[in-house]
Predict the 3D structure of the following.
Amino acid sequence: MSDDKKKVGFGRPPAKTRFQPGRSGNPKGRPKGSKNFRTALADELSSTVPVTEQGKRRKLTKRSVIAKQMVNAALAGELKILPMILNADRADEQKQAIAAAAEEFPITPEDEAVMKDIVARILAAHSSGLPATDANQAGSRQEKAEEGKRPDAKS
């Protein structure tokens, strides 16, 4: 054991400079409570700004102000903005269609049972190291063998 600690080379730094058990390799790391970029952007876009619209002063979110500016620029003939607007609109329509389909075709208990069976077979195949189809075939062979039938015999 003492020889391992004394060995120094590629992949074996000196014992004094190795990470100590129970101590983080990045002690100053990201502080708790700090926000990632997506959260910071969402907070910034949801904050309000005062806007004068048709002579009236209103408070709008930055997100809605950006949307208004994009639509107005597209109406003014800025063709580069049109694909962004249309893609955003298309994505929103797809989300609404998915939500409507989920309401129209709810998941029944039979569907849940089938899904649970599929997940169980996938997990069993993953734990045995066989692809899912091989695991299913192996399982059916084992069941036939338990019943006293030959697995290769046609029934």
The mean pLDDT is 84. The radius of gyration is 31 Å. Helices lie at 2-6, 37-46, 62-75, 82-104, 109-128, 132-147.
